[in-house]
Amino acid sequence: MPEFEELDAESLGPEAQKLLEFLKNRVNGQDKVLNSFIKAIDLFDSGLRDFNKPIHTAILVGPAATGKTLLVRSLAEFWFGNPDAYLEISCQNYRREKDILSNIPSIETKGRYHIDPMFREKVDIHNALVEEKDGLIAELKNKKKLNSEKIEEMKKRLAEIDWILEKESGTLHQGQFNYRSIIVFDHLEWSDDNIWDFFCAMLENGYVIVNNTAVPITNSVIFITCGDQFPQKEINKEIGFVNSSQNKDGDFPEQKIYLKTRDQILNFFPKKFLSRINRAYIFGELSEKVLLEILKDDYRKFYNELTSVAGFPIIFRVESEANDFIVKESMDHPEFGARLLKSKFDKYIRKPIGRLKNQGKLKAGDKILIRFDRKRNKIIFLKEKNDNNPA
Fold first, then answer.
1. Residues with Cβ within 8 Å of residue 370, at least 6 apart in sequence
2. What is the pLDDT of residues 357-370, one digit of tens each?
């Protein structure tokens, strides 16, 4: 009997693992979303995916500033070295199918998306053969007007067309195009019902015809972003969407938010559209722990700005109570996510240090301590004394 060993089919490939680590260093608090998303990209790297469909089609749902756009920008940065290298279509501005189609050509200049000049020709040949086949079949149904020689000739041509179509199937949209792209349909919940047929056809066929030009999307990751507010309708049955806020025990601490959002998705979007989506990822609100991680990243970025951009290297240390104060201030409106934290960081750190610099009270090389004063309920700045810089 031959011996067998079990293979590990769960681990990621090296390129996907690099991407996962890259994303986790930029998108905080959404590890479950990232772990699920990366599996689709890993399939793309293997070359075993369906080449007639996009690389991945995902709905990103959640409150503002929870990491949806950051995921898109981080993927673009990893793939293209530029976080802006993606096409974004704001659905509130394109409420009809023709409005979206008129914007698609900007992919060439804005989104690192290149149309293969041979693709349109292949589509034209394919469509002409299908049309000819349909015409021959229609004629053969009326055999009374045809002689036997003509019938045999038409059957021979039909067999020839079938052979060509079968030979070309799988190559029409295949990976002959050495590029990747990212397309974002932002806030799809604001669009008009008239565009659903456009999306269904695009995702089903793998390309869009724009101004007599075939724009393939088979090498694209398509993100569809939505907020967390949807019209309420009757509740449909549950399906398996990914919630990033699942804890270690497998429970959903924000289960009410999760169920509400999932049901809103199911009731808002047509089933014919949802059936063509690979996955829906629900981004949970950011916890204090996650906001603290983001705050520490903000300090690092600010220090780099001071050193490399402003040419004003100062050394600062922040006490934990000061960080806790800023984070708690940012939790007043959790629906604003990380954007409110950025605002509080500017208010309590960036602007005061800028004012101290303008007043001449801070100079390059100074060392400061950032502390929270409980009595005055405010953040204060203390400068270290030295012989050359007395207090």
1. 316, 317, 318, 319, 322, 349, 379, 380, 381, 382
2. 899 888 888 899 99
